[in-house]
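Entry 14. Ran structure prediction on the chain below.
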Amino acid sequence: MQMPLAAAQARIAPSGPVVLGLGAHTVVVDHGDGGPTPLELMTGALAACSAMTARTHLARDGDIGDLDVLVTLDAGPPTLFYRRVLLPWRLSTTDVHRLADALERTELTMLLRPSFQIRTAVEHAGDVLN
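Output, structure tokens:
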């Protein structure tokens, strides 16, 4: 058996939220007010993965400062993740396309792509750059 890319353990009592073990970390998951829902965790995972990829990609050109990645999951049909990378500065068209291409190749994007459509917009000051 190969080593897993990731592992999680979920524990639930007869009542109450799920306690999710992720390595050394614990997250409470609930459909109520006790924590994020499973869909929020999946959406958050894509946002976090995308932000880390954007930071790594953009840092090659120097200090990038802060940026935001917003991801929504729309029920569809088709079921769609809409990923928005909000930059505090404008990139050249070439750099925008390189960033968008890097985001399309993240591990999580590639894992989700067979089941979901994922649209990516790189934005600055409300303008979509790609």
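The helical segments are 38-59, 93-104, 107-112. Will compare against last week's run tomorrow.
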